[in-house]
Write a structure and sequence with these properties.
The protein is an alpha/beta fold and 311 residues long. It has two domains: 234 residues, no CATH class; 52 residues. Helix content is 43%, strand content 13%. It has twelve helices and ten strands. It has a six-stranded mixed β-sheet with strand order 5-4-1-8-9-10, with helices on both faces. β4 and β5 form a beta hairpin. α5 crosses α6. The chain is globular and about 55 Å long. It starts with 6 loop residues before the first strand and ends in a 6-residue tail after the last helix. The relative contact order is 0.12. The mean pLDDT is 87.
Amino acid sequence: MATRPRTALVVACVESKSHHATVSVAETLDQAATTAKRLQTWTRKLDSSKTRFPLLSLYKGVAWSSVRELHETYGSKVDVWVASAGLGLMPIGESGPAYGATFAPRHADSIGTSKTDLSTWWSGLGSWQPVWLKRAGPRQIADLSRRYDEILVALPAPYLAAVSEDVGNRPEKILVCGLGSIRPLPELVQSVTIPAGIRQVVGGTLTSALNRTIVEALANVGKRGHARSLSAEVRRMAERAPPLVIPKRSPTSSEWIRGFISAGLAEGTDSSATAALARLRRSDYACEETRFRDLYREVFHSMQSGSAPSR
């Protein structure tokens, strides 16, 4: 009988999905309703959804490709769990409906704007048992401490805000790691900040850097063949990360960016906003990531509908 890994890794879901969302925050929920009422509506809609997909193939994009690599290469050493803004805490081997929900701000499918909104929503998802799950299991990060010796929580800032109270309930086995600054966490929760300069070691975009760091850390632990834990290796990598080198790039107007995106989509060059932004930066042009994704989404939808993007 195979021995269960002693380490759990919690990663974030991603916005990009391989299937159209059948349930979304923007289209499903009354934003004026209480969080409890919104949660009730949300979970009922998900439970009644007839179509579900394996989480490994439901999500897509550069950041998720690192998660897939991690699971497929190191699944015997670490169990991967997904912190989903729509589904709650899920083992990566499970399935779920295609949905539109995020803890990230300034998005049509954002759960809320305050830490209280996010935390209340996460807690509510943790109290819900989806009807399609094969068996009951941990629905909160704190519950993972009953199964594992070590729990590494590697999440972007908005997701850390949502799970902050959760990790504070059983902090003794948990290490929280994030890229850049980490908001204050509950007392006794250990954390490590991974400098943005880690990109120069692990490659990829800023969005994928956190997941790529975990992949690299697991590879390092395996190569050294000693008893260093995953958490200890992540700490070592964070301490040795080089300073961030910011390349000098030419600023661009929104109109120019729209043309750049349109050309890439028309030629089939870019499969996602992440790929398009990476191509832009390789050409030594600058655009802030959130702004670029908004423009990409605008151009993509306008090309799908046959209308011209706004100027």
